[in-house]
Amino acid sequence: KQWYQRRVRATQVEVNPFGLTDQNEVVCFDAKINFDDNAQFRQKEIFAMEDTSESDPRELEAAEHDLNYIAMEGNIACLVNGAGLAMATMDIIQLHGGSPANFLDVGGKVQESQVEKAFNLLTKDPAVKAIFVNIFGGIVDCKIIATGIINACNKTGLELPLVVRLKGANMEAARELLANSGLDIAAYDELDEAAGAVVEFVK
User: Residue 165 CB: number of other CB atoms within 10 A?
Assistant: First the structure.
């Protein structure tokens, strides 16, 4: 099992349950194998067998652009970087009485075109009533995020309320870009204040 996991970069190899037939034969009734997404370029044959017929089309579209998207049932769209920040963002939205519409992680190597694609995905959801961008620029350049936001708003003609919080690398330049964009963007410095504002927009 360990050899197989190392060879194909499997994160889980499970055979369960077994059963014993009337002929005293041991039969496997179910098995599960999961693979590390980061090893996809090494295991192309295995990943080519993936059945996407029951997957959310938005999740598949996001994956094509190296975005991590999971649909939820709320009305506040979230664009963040990093799974930890995504969870914290959704938690604080709920703390203020709101409900997140999705989990959208743009990752640490995001480019302007990916930000635009992320906005396209978010605005396709008819349940979305506001968008909350919460970025911590540790390895992400806030200026890239800001430029992507501006381009996305201009191209889509965004009419939904947009709340943006940018912290970290190039955040001052990013905030200046947003302030001079001529767009109706509510920019905040503190997460709690930003979350409270976006929840108020959808009430």
Answer: 24
pTM, rounded to two decimals: 0.77
Q: Which residues pair with 104 in a beta bridge?
A: 69, 79
Q: Within 13 Å of residue 189, how many CA atoms lie on the same side as its CB?
A: 1
What ranges in 96-190 are assigned the alpha helix state H?
112-124, 142-156, 171-179
Computed from CA positions of residues 146, 150, 152, 153, in that sequence, does the dihedral angle turn out positive or negative? positive
With H, G, I as helix, E, B as strand and everything else as coil, classify residue 99: coil
Q: Which of 151, 166, 75, 162 has the alpha carbon at shortest distance from 115?
A: 151
The answer for residues whose C-beta is within 8 angstroms of residue 172's C-beta and 6 or more apart is: none
**Largest pairwise CA distance in the chain:** 78
What is the DSSP-derived secondary structure letter of residue 37?
Answer: G
SS3 169: coil
**187 φ, ψ to 5°?**
-100, 135
Alpha carbon 91 to its chain centroid, in Å, reads 15
- Spatial distance between the Cα atoms of 171 and 179, rounded to a whole number of angstroms: 12
pLDDT tens digit string along 3-49?
A: 556 678 888 888 889 898 999 999 988 988 888 877 887 888 887 78
119 phi, psi to nearest 5 deg: -65, -40
